[in-house]
Design goal:
The complex is a heterodimer. By secondary structure, chain A is of the alpha/beta class. Chain A folds into two domains: 212 residues, Rossmann fold; 82 residues, Alpha-Beta Plaits (2-Layer Sandwich). Chain A is 35% helix and 28% strand. Chain A is built from eleven helices and 14 strands. A six-stranded mixed sheet of chain A has the order 6-7-8-3-9-10, with helices on both faces. The radius of gyration of chain B is 29 Å and the shape is elongated. In chain B, helix 8 packs antiparallel against helix 14 and helix 11 packs antiparallel against helix 14. Chain B starts with a helix and ends with a helix. In chain B, strands 2-1-3-4 form a four-stranded mixed sheet, sandwiched between helices. By secondary structure, chain B is mainly alpha-helical. Classes of the chains: A alpha/beta, B mainly alpha.
Chain lengths: 319, 384
């Protein structure tokens, strides 16, 4: 049985539909990444699955339990780490751990053992008597994760766990997640980072409350919507990348183009070859330094999906 | 058994955490322990509502008091003014020599009372005619004016009677007043018991009001919502450390009242503390209710003030309830401090016992339960 199942999950705030008939399922032991721009409904989905928000419509099962019928049993099986890390700043590392352990009914020897394990796993030993306010972002995040997992949850919800922490801590967290998922714990993670998305074993993309993609990173890269038939991609490098983009958009065979660093990712008709692009750009006064074929990466996929979705709902598109 | 305690799940964990917060928060402890004490010292030492030593200016046209060209036979004037001087109410600080000067002293606010004795005062008295004196009172402070008028009239009446009744006769009616419970009419006896009730209200309501709001602002409340903690467990766990702090403060305030300001406790001090428990409970519950409704600490602060002010003005702490218009008297029934102040004054001043006062405690306990359940209900609805 999957760890998480949603069916037509919907949440309205007045007239506004924050989450619109979202259906997906997450298998046990997966690292499931939920992606989407800010305000697209990621946090709202997490809040419904963890019982902080009621469902407006649809159903959701966590570890086989209906979140509407047995929210209390669900709470004992899940852990949740919010964007703000939710620690008590004036309490020490040890006191934070003790508090969250006791909240889950752990006492005495069991509690001390769990705390010892958590401290060891997160290498928190040097800081146990330090107040949480005086920890750096990465250590705060380790402590928050430790607090959220003291009671051995089967399913962990992490809402943008790496927002505002340094790259080393970010990398370390992901290593830990894979380590733990190997032990059978399911992770539900929201993020905007594409490199993090690439590491997930299962991805879903929400945009304005709608689920518009769901699958493994590989299957998403091969989505026909992202790489439409009769097109292929090039990475075009140029010294003046902004003006190059403006010029490139005047090319009749160009479907879309986006800047990545010092180069442009361009989707063009598949009868057009690199030589022709270099020549056409040169005729517009732009010298192409390098051009090479490109396989769509996840960011291309999500940009493409977003643009198509924006066309569908009639937004002004500028790609 | 477990089902009985189920609604309080998480109580011990939250209690542990809140006790740590309190220990770390030296500002809160300062606020809770020191501020009420300072208020008590200021109020106990500075405020005396008994009118004494009112500055009085005299225009004595007979001139006898200063010995300047005294009019013949002016001893009657001296006897009258001595009565004024010997009363504790008036303090004659200056003699003036014209009506203009007399007026000026009053207008400038240097004198609250002006007495003018006409030049023929003695002559009229000796001739068994009615003699007049004029007493002008500054009405801008009504308590002072009222007391000054009463005492001045009483002096006049007394002097008149002395002249009309033979020396060995007794007055027809002899009123022997006896002021019970606060025989010296000391202000601290009246104000300090009420002050304790108001101070306890302030510290308990405000400290708890901040506690849930602070967690909302920090985002930790959201984390708690995902745990198995129950609303009542969370709220009781938050209230108890402040309950203990308020009890300590109650004992401190009572000690200062008793030993520094010498307000004797006529009744049983343990009964007093016992009857206060339900008052602390209702105040903490009010703080919780505010906290659950407010979205920011500023909002919680304003709501606390909204509770504090009616408690000061409607509870009988400052203004006697018996003088209130019916609507306010009725409203004061819903102010917890009303019951506590009545209990405090009852035990401390009147020596009342449990059977005279248990109803107050029962009403407060009932209020506390209602408020706490409202807060718990509201808290449960935060999962929306």
């Amino acid at each position: 049985m999957p760890a998480i199942i949603t069916k037509d999950l919907t949440r309205n705030f007045g007239d506004f539909t924050a989450v619109d008939h979202v259906t997906f399922s997450v298998e046990k032991g997966e690292v499931f990444g939920l992606l989407g721009p800010n305000g697209s409904g990621k946090t709202t989905i997490i809040k419904m699955l963890t019982g902080i928000l009621a469902l407006s419509d649809g159903e959701a099962f966590v570890d086989g339990l209906d979140v509407r019928k047995s929210p209390e049993d669900v709470r004992l099986r899940i852990g949740y780490m919010s964007q703000k890390f939710s620690l008590y700043d004036d309490l020490t590392v040890l006191e934070n751990l003790r508090f969250y352990g006791r909240v889950y009914g752990l006492t005495g020897k069991v509690l001390e053992e769990k705390i010892a394990t958590t401290i060891e796993r997160n290498a928190l030993q040097p800081y146990i008597d330090r107040q949480a306010a005086r920890l750096s972002g990465g250590w705060k995040q380790r402590l928050a994760l430790g607090c959220a997992m003291l009671h051995d949850p089967k399913i962990m919800f992490l809402d943008e766990p790496t927002a505002g922490i340094d790259p080393v801590a970010r990398r370390r967290l992901w290593d830990l997640l894979f380590d733990l998922s190997g032990q059978g714990i399911t992770f539900f993670v929201t993020t905007h980072y594409m490199d993090e998305a690439e590491r997930c074993s299962h991805l879903a993309y929400v945009y304005y409350g709608k689920l518009i993609a769901d699958g493994t990173p590989d299957s998403l890269r091969e989505l026909p919507e992202a790489s439409p038939a009769g097109t292929h991609r090039f990475e075009i490098s140029s010294r003046e990348v902004t003006s190059a983009l403006r010029k490139a958009r005047q090319l009749p065979y160009l479907k879309s183009a986006t800047i990545f660093g010092r180069s442009i990712h361009a989707l063009v008709d598949d009868h057009v070859q690199a030589d022709q692009i270099v020549a056409d750009m040169a005729s517009k006064g732009v010298q192409v330094e390098e051009i090479r074929p490109l396989v769509a990466d996840l960011e291309d996929v999500f940009v493409e999906l977003t643009v198509q979705r924006q066309r569908e709902i009639g937004e002004v598109v500028n790609v | 058994m477990s089902s009985l305690f189920a609604p309080f799940r998480g109580f011990l964990a939250v209690f542990y955490k809140e006790a740590l917060h309190m220990r770390r928060d030296s500002m809160a402890i300062m606020f809770a322990l020191i501020v009420p004490l300072m208020e008590m010292i200021i109020l106990g030492a500075a405020i005396d509502t008994n009118v004494r030593q009112v500055k009085t200016v005299v225009y004595d046209q007979t001139g006898i008091m200063e010995g300047t060209n005294p009019a013949p036979g002016s001893s009657q004037t001296r006897a009258l003014l001595d009565r004024f001087r010997n009363s504790d109410t008036f303090r004659i600080y200056k003699y003036v020599h014209s009506e203009k000067e007399l007026n000026e002293e009053l207008i400038a606010g240097r004198a609250r009372v002006g007495v003018e004795v006409p030049v023929d005062f003695d002559r009229d008295l000796l001739a068994h005619r009615s003699a007049q004196i004029m007493v002008m009172v500054d009405g801008s402070e009504s308590a002072v004016a009222g007391q000054a008028l009463n005492v001045a009239s009483a002096i006049g009446l007394d002097e008149s009677l002395r002249r009309m009744i033979p020396a060995d006769a007794l007055p027809a009616i002899d009123v022997r007043p006896k002021v019970m419970f606060n025989p010296d009419s000391r202000s601290p006896n009246f104000f300090l018991p009420g002050l304790i009730a108001v101070m306890l209200l302030m510290i308990t309501t405000m400290l708890t009001a901040f506690s849930v709001v602070r967690e909302k602002e920090r985002g930790t409340l959201e984390q708690l919502m995902v745990t198995p903690v129950k609303p009542l467990g969370l709220m009781m766990g938050k209230m108890m450390p402040y309950f203990a702090l308020a009890l300590v403060e109650l004992v401190i305030l009572l000690s200062f009242m008793r030993f520094l300001f010498k307000v004797a406790i006529s009744g049983n001090v343990f009964l007093l503390v016992l009857l206060s428990l339900s008052y602390l409970f209702v105040n903490l519950a009010l703080g919780m209710l505010i906290s659950v409704k407010a979205n920011s600490q500023a909002e919680a602060m304003q709501s606390s003030m909204g509770i504090l002010l009616p408690s000061i003005f409607l509870s009988g702490y400052v203004f006697p309830r018996d003088n209130m218009p019916a609507i306010f008297y009725w409203l004061s029934n819903f102010v917890p401090a009303t019951y506590m102040i009545d209990t405090f004054r009852g035990v401390i001043l009147r020596g009342a016992g449990f059977f005279q006062l248990w109803e107050n405690a029962a009403v407060l306990f009932f209020m506390g339960v209602v408020v706490l359940l409202l807060a718990a209900k509201r808290f449960g609805k935060m999962v929306v």
